[in-house]
Amino acid sequence: RKEVEQDPGPFNVPEGATVAFNCTYSNSASQSFFWYRQDCRKEPKLLMSVYSSGNEDGRFTAQLNRASQYISLLIRDSKLSDSATYLCVVSGGSTLGRLYFGRGTQLTVWP
Amino acid sequence: NAGVMQNPRHLVRRRGQEARLRCSPMKGHSHVYWYRQLPEEGLKFMVYLQKENIIDESGMPKERFSAEFPKEGPSILRIQQVVRGDSAAYFCASSRSLGSGNNEQFFGPGTRLTVL
User: Fold this and answer.
1) Which label site among A69, A104, B15, B17 has the fewest CB atoms less than 10 Å from its CB?
2) Which phi-psi region, left, alpha or beta, contains residue B84 (left: φ > 0; alpha: ψ -120 to 50)?
3) d(CA B108, CA B14)
4) Which positions in chain A have a beta carbon within 8 angstroms of at least one beta carbon in chain B?
5) pLDDT tens by residue, B29-61
């Protein structure tokens, strides 16, 4: 079983739409959770950390459900510049330091 | 404040040659991580280093691959006798510390290795 599972998409949405991505992780001892975005052939860039209480950064809202081992990312009022691959990332447990990446969910926002 | 730097950005090698990939962490960061991304795949952890110490190399192939992070200078990922299957993007990341469990890592632009 993979450490982190994501729906690969692709998601194709119009500008202004709201889109949600989901992710599950297998290691209940995981301690840190993140969403990264990766543009084509570029490096992953940290979008936001995810906290147990849920957190918001502008149009982006992340939620964590430890009981279900489930992480989500909500993007409101999508922009063309949001087009990218969104990576669900988990860290911690017995392998402190290393990050476990999902394969990513591809988002295309069209005008 | 420069981000994580990697060089070269692109590297072409013939089968059997050696590849050396370099990574300089962000200023103030003492933890370095190497990841590999195969075409159409997710990123996979390879090795985690601090200055002069390998902390976790469980993701690195046992043969032909080695990594170091000397007291002075960049971290080096070395691949000996490269094969076509080594063709991938190799990303380096750095973090300040593991702190209270948070582990925000910042990535360099990557080195794209092509083995002919």
Assistant:
1) B15
2) alpha
3) 25
4) 31-32, 34, 41-46, 49, 87, 91-92, 95-104
5) 889 999 999 987 889 999 999 988 999 999 999
